[in-house]
Input
Amino acid sequence: MKNSSSQSNIVEAPFTKEMVTSAKIKAKSLGKINNSILKGKGNFAGYLGEEIVASYIKADIISNDEGEEKYNHDLVKGEQTIEVKTKRRTVPPKDFYDASVAGTSRHQNPDLYIFVSIQFKGSTPVKAWICGQKESTEYFKQSTFYAKGDVDPSNGWKVSTDCYNLPYEDLDSLGK
Output
């Protein structure tokens, strides 16, 4: 299903040195997390993605707060709960690239998913994009499930964990 708009949902999103520092501190304190596809190695990118989205849409980060809610979503804006899903990249994202939610994340129940791509050169983030959003119920209705070991026919990627994929072009544009 193609996005009805001919324009891409992907928008470049700025980030600051302060956001990078904050994300590094949070990632180091978190360490290896349960159900992490990258065994904790993606923590820095994930926290930087949260910082970027929170700044861009003026939301509050709760992922490091006390209590159980931090396991169900990363941000809160008004009454809306938001889970940020971030991918590390070596190239800018394209509309046909996939947004992904791991099967192990199905316990989360956010109102909304927002997807971020961060381009790295080595361990240094150089650019970031917010690739779109989707209400969680709609995301799972529209996404394709791939089991660990399946090969995604759209890109030849061998799936490393059960996940639900949806091309960025099928996401909704981000509302501020």
The longest strand covers residues 124-135.
